[in-house]
Amino acid sequence: MTKKTNASADKKADASVTPTSTSASAPINQRLGKEERIELYRTMLRIRRFEERSLRAYQAKKIGGFLHLYIGQEAVAVGCCSLMGPNDHVITAYRDHGHAIAVGMGLNELMAELFGKATGCSKGKGGSMHYFAPDRNYWGGHGIVGGQIPLGTGLAYAVKYKGLKGAAMAFMGDGAVNQGAVHEAYNLASLWQLPVIFVIENNGYSMGTSQQRSSAGDLAKRAEGYNMSWGTCNGHDVYDVRAVMDRFLRQAREESKPAIIEIRTYRYRGHSVADPDNTYRAKAEIEEYRRTKDPIQVFQHQLLSEGVLTEADAAQIDQAARTEADAAADFAEASPFPTPDDIQKDVYWEADHPAERKSQGRLFFN
Amino acid sequence: MPVLTYREAIRHALAEELERDSSVVVLGEEVGQFNGAYKVTEGLLAKFGPKRIVDTPISEAGFIGLGVGASMLGIRPVMELMFWSFYSVAFDQILNNAANVRYMSGGLINCPIVIRGPANGGTNVGATHSHTPENVLANHPGVKVVVPSTAADAKGLLKSAIRDNDPVFFLENTLLYGEKGEVPEGEHVVPLGLADVKRAGTDLTIVTYGRSVLHSLAAAEILQRDHGASVEVVDLRTIRPLDLDTVLASVAKTHRVLIVEEQKPFASVGSQLAYMIQREAFDELDAPIHRLATVDAPAIYSPPVEVEQLPNPSRVLKAALEALA
Fold first, then answer.
1. Between A168 and which of A154, A156, B35, B72 could a Cys-Cys bridge form, CB atoms 3.0 to 4.6 Å apart?
2. Cβ within 8 Å of residue A288, ≥6 positions away
3. B155: pLDDT confidence band, cut at 50, 70 and 90?
């Protein structure tokens, strides 16, 4: 199992991989410089190598709880987050490692969080599903399916209230679209014309239930019922993600208009590492995606054909990503755990700022 | 000192904080055009306009979650729940998101949100509209829970709540909205977590909060007049943080305790209080701690019987006599 995972992106892509992206000519992509294109590629590879390394750590029992891997979906977070301006915000669910790396969080703090260490991005208090970086406009990392979508709508509300030109991207999986809170958020976003893009990362399965067995109708088209615009894009092609998302993000920032975007993607691993992934889809299906649609391989082909990247560059970037992921695991391993004294820190703002505390009485009980 | 209703006192607190801080926004069902389902927000839309006073659809999970998200970015939303009973449809937003996000982010985020509205029985609206969730809310570390009993406290505590950097859940009472009381003029702020001795006495401490304070004070008068018993009434005002010191000081004086609460008995606020009092003042007690709570069943509709299900002066009187025996 471990070996197979490690090899996932190593294979040379099959000849059937689409050689060029239909969205390469979109203005938002055309204006990318060579280094920026390589950076997109590098970020996708760093996400994958980070997650593969985290899986090995999980199997070595260094990580507790759940681990929802993003492997196969990298182009979605990287494409979307590469478009962020200073007043744009991101929030997502529990499959949140890719977005964290895409907004620029460091692998060390992310791996240390998985290891439950005090050096983790949430000091070991959040774990895999709860990464946050407010300084990078990244608001989590949320554990309950669809529960983050009203929060993302609130981020957009705050942006609009403050009179800023910005947008919130509220990510969810295809399983979240049937949650009531998501529909309540859709209604509020359209009613109040909030600059929020609801991004459905449709990987085909809500845990082990396929889209066909879980959702009636087209996922993004539900926007029509709320008088919102909507679109779809190819989540295996980072250029397409950027081209489509750019259009709707501009609409959100400039005209304060919400939208629902369904990005079609695929996850190679189970729902979480606890999912043996042998009940609801065929191995051949996974292999077919890996062989023909892998977002990293697709983009590598694209950059090779553009002459932006050489095979040697690609190998060097990959090696650097592996080294960085290994170093992050070493950092996490060497870091201290939080202490029992840390358990009751970061509960109340007031308790953490005693000099500024205005309330009295006991905040904690035993 | 000016006399205001509890409703007006809350409205004044909202208006003063809206005036003071442009990041304060009032959102909720019927808070604007309708002037408030219970008229608490009457006139605020006319004064502050639709950007600050926002009517929401009937969509508690959506708009409470929106408020939580906005508060993470520095907005100070004051969300009105028409009834706290409706918290159940927004439970995930209130108690997973607002309560936990600071902790899960390792202290990087805080949510300066206030959720307010009435939480009481006694109005013959049946079980779905009569919940008193202060124990459920206060069970979640990260949140603060306030239950004011008087106009002055309602105003002063709400101003503190709005300025607080943690999520504060503010539980009012439809049967108190019309109650009048003196409210200090000018800037009147009551800190959260400070109990108030509403009546001094030497024979029995009644620890209570919310509308039960009024019942306890009424019963205390009868106990004094007819039974020569001197009862001290301690109004907690805030459930979390909790001012146990004021409670213990009173217990050290009276050596007998009756807890009165409009809560279902099982795992109530009173259960926690009783544990803490016996743990910290065991040697001061001359008798077991007594408690009067709501009779343990869903809220009955039948108007005359609902009065008997809840704490009321005669039930408090009976319970106090037992505690004094």
1. A156
2. none
3. very high
Whether A195 has its CB under 8 Å from any CB of chain B: the answer is: no
Q: What is the pLDDT of residue A19?
A: 53
| Count of pairs with CB atoms under 8 A, one residue in A, one in B | 194
Overall size of chain B counted in residues: 325
At A17 the pLDDT is 57
For chain A, residues with pLDDT lower than 50 are 1-11, 15
Interface test mutation site (partner A, options B104, B169, B196, max chain A beta carbons within 10 A): B104
Active site members of B: 60, 129
CB contact under 8 Å between B65 and A153, yes or no, is: yes
What pLDDT digit, counting tens, does each position of B232-258 carry?
Answer: 999 999 999 999 999 999 999 999 999
- Nearest CB to B67; choose among A133, A142, A154: A154
Q: How is chain B split into domains, by residue range?
A: 3-182, 196-324
CB-based contact, A349 to chain B, within 8 Å:
yes
Based on the number of CB atoms within 10 Å of its own CB, is A316 exposed (0-12), middle (13-18) or buried (19 or more)? Answer: exposed
Sheet of B168-172: strand order equals B53-55, B24-28, B76-80, B114-118, B168-172, B144-146, B238-240
**Which residue of B108, B147, B165 to mutate against A (max A Cβ within 10 Å)?**
B108
Closest by CA to A300, choosing from A96, A17, A31, A4, is A17
Fold of B3-182: Rossmann fold (3.40.50)
Domain ranges of chain A: 22-274+281-334
Whether the pLDDT of residue B170 is over 90: the answer is yes
Per CATH, the number for A22-274+281-334 is: 3.40.50.970
pLDDT in the model for residue B58: 98
- Structure tokens that stand for A269 in this block: 């691993």
Residues of A with Cβ-Cβ distance to B73 under 8 angstroms: 89, 154-155, 158-159, 162
Q: Report ipTM (2 d.p.).
A: 0.96
Q: Does A70 touch chain B (CB under 8 A)?
A: no
Distance from CA of A181 to the nearest CA of B (A): 6
Cα–Cα dist B143/A46, whole Å = 38
Asked if A154 lies within 8 A of B57 by C-beta distance, the reply is no
Q: Does domain B196-324 have CATH number 3.40.50.920?
A: yes
Q: How far apart are CA A154 and CA A86, in angstroms?
A: 17
Residue type, B157: L
Q: For residue B143, give the chain A residue with the closest CA.
A: A348
Q: State mean pLDDT over B84-111.
A: 98
Q: What is the three-class DSSP state of B196?
A: strand
Strands annotated E in B65-199 = 76-80, 114-118, 144-146, 168-172, 180-182, 196-199
Cβ neighbours of B75 in A, within 8 Å = 157-158, 161
How long a stretch of residues is chain A? 366
Beta bridge partners of B76: B24
Residue A6: per-residue pLDDT? 41
B3-182 and B196-324 share one fold? yes
